[in-house]
Amino acid sequence: MDPLPNPAPLASKLRNTLVRYHSIGDGEWRVAKKTKDATVWRKPSEEFSGYLYKAQGVVEDVTNRIVDHIRPGPYRLDWDSLMTSMDIMETFEENCCVMRYTTAGQLWNIIAPREFVDFSYTTSYEDGLLTCGISLDYVEVRPNFVRGFNHPCGWFCIPLKDSPGHSLLTGYIQTELRGMLPQSAVDTAMSSTLVNFYSDLKKALKT
């Protein structure tokens, strides 16, 4: 189990990694799922043996409010059907923290509940915001959970120039669920989870 890292260099490295993902050309992605709310693509991850997923959709709201619903804080538990608990363990600055959260079982509990401990960082990007995170090997795993691991992940939220009340939300997710799981089950769950994330978020922003 590692000590807590120095937040400033970790935040900088994380941001640079996400900006690099954001510049990957369209030709490298393959469509995994498409609905009216979002499109999900994937490509082999450079970090582990699974996939890096890219999700994108237009969300009707201003950038700050959307990101407040995504990043660690009081809103996320209210609307994200996958997340079952969340605790902020350390706060470094207003935009930088370590959180522990748990997720519900998926696919008729083929995928059992998971626990994650993530470093989270929110910063400006172009005219909008980037909120990003990476898992840490920190604190003991609680009983009844498998500890998953998020390789660099993040959400870019940029206001649309011709429609400032709408924002383009683009996510990059690469989650290593760990435990004894068939990769096909993980891939099915990831695409569906990302599409549901958009529809749940849109509903929450309308309330």
What does this entry look like structurally?
The structure is a single chain. The chain is of the alpha+beta class. It has one domain (7-21, 30-205): 2-Layer Sandwich (Alpha-D-Glucose-1,6-Bisphosphate, Chain A, domain 4). The protein has helices at residues 7-22, 63-70, 74-79, 183-206, and strands at 30-34, 39-44, 51-59, 83-93, 96-103, 114-125, 128-135, 146-147, 149-150, 153-160, 163-173, 175-176. Strands 1, 2, 3, 4, 5, 6, 7, 8, 10 and 11 form a ten-stranded mixed sheet that branches. Strand 6 and strand 7 (128-135) form a beta hairpin. The chain is globular and about 50 Å long.
What amount of the residues lies in strands?
35-45%
User: What is the CA-CA span between the terminal residues?
Assistant: 41 Å
Number of domains: 1
In the CATH scheme, what's the topology name? Alpha-D-Glucose-1,6-Bisphosphate, Chain A, domain 4
The CATH H-level superfamily is START domain
CATH-scheme architecture: 2-Layer Sandwich
Query: In terms of structural class, how would the helical and strand content be classed?
Result: alpha+beta
How do the helices and strands follow one another from N- to C-terminus?
HEEEHHEEEEEEEEEH
GO molecular function: cholesterol binding; cholesterol transfer activity
GO biological process, one term: cholesterol import
Pfam family, one: START
Domain START: 10-207
